[in-house]
Known about the structure:
Blueprint: E1 5-8, H1 14-25, E2 29-34, H2 37-47, E3 53-57, H3 63-71, E4 80-85, H4 101-129, E5 134-138, H5 151-171, E6 177-183, E7 186-187, H6 190-194, H7 199-207, E8 212-213, H8 214-225, E9 235-238
Parallel strand pairs: 1-2, 1-4, 2-3, 4-5, 5-6, 6-9, 7-8
The chain binds NADPH dihydro-nicotinamide-adenine-dinucleotide phosphate (NDP) and 2-hydroxyethylsulfonic acid.
Domain Ketoreductase: 4-184
Pfam families: adh_short
Keywords: Oxidoreductase
Amino acid sequence: MNSKVVFITGATSGFGRATARRFAEAGWSLVLTGRRFERLQELKEELQAKVPVHIASLDVRSIDAVKEVVAQLPEDFRQVTCLVNNAGLALAPEPAQKADLNDWHTMIDTNITGLVNVTHTLLPTLIETGKGASIVNIGSVAGSWPYSGSHVYGASKAFVEQFSYNLRCDLVATGVRVTDIAPGLAETEFTLVRNKGDQAASDALYRTTTPLTAEDIAEQIFYVATLPAHININRLEIMPSRQAWAGFAVDRDKE
Ligand code: NDP
Ligand code: 8X3
């Protein structure tokens, strides 16, 4: 049995849940966190016959909560080898000038503050694990490519990208690897959350194309975390083959 431990934020849905299943297939012990505890319980029930599973309700925005969850890890789950910083969300799909400031703060608090909270708290453990340890941060194509309605979301993912590179510089002699995984269009609950529960809006985005699946991204996360210890994938940008970049926006006079 593989005794390595993966710590996943946002394991209640989408990429995080698929990642839990992928690492379980390979025999890793799982620390699964997220705010919706019932979903964590369901996932634990599904996977505990295969591997050891520890679940903890966690809102990554609270540093006190993060510290408590890490401090209370049972002995067999303490030596984390891989941290998957996946918890995150987009809100306010409308243009910046129409967006609610609270939504901007929620994205900053979750995608930036939450991610640094968990990273800072687990860094000593990951450094102790050393060679072969990894931090896999979930960024987005929105971190590199601007589009209308991305405002703070894309900017928060640009933070994830640069933070990942900067971490690499500091951790280069520790054996701890850092990767920014930047997915494009992927069908999860992401668009449902972005549109505040509007299932029709979510269905409309994915229905007439072929988006990535949560399992596609979980496979990439597992891949980068299980490469030989001397290899670091710095950034992996993944789009569905039916997605590409749009052109520049140009404001024109009416003729
Ligand atoms: P989902 O909405 O399906 O999953 C998001 C996860 O984040 C949930 O498990 C949710 O758990 C968790 N989460 C949200 N806020 C918090 C919080 N404050 N504390 C702890 N957990 C939280 O979307 P995805 O799986 O698609 O999203 C996962 C990551 O991938 C995000 O960072 C997203 O930005 C990124 N991404 C998504 C893409 C897509 O097209 N789907 C493309 C590129 C990047 P809970 O609500 O239970 O707390
Ligand atoms: C989510 C992908 O294309 O909606 O990060 O910005 S996209």
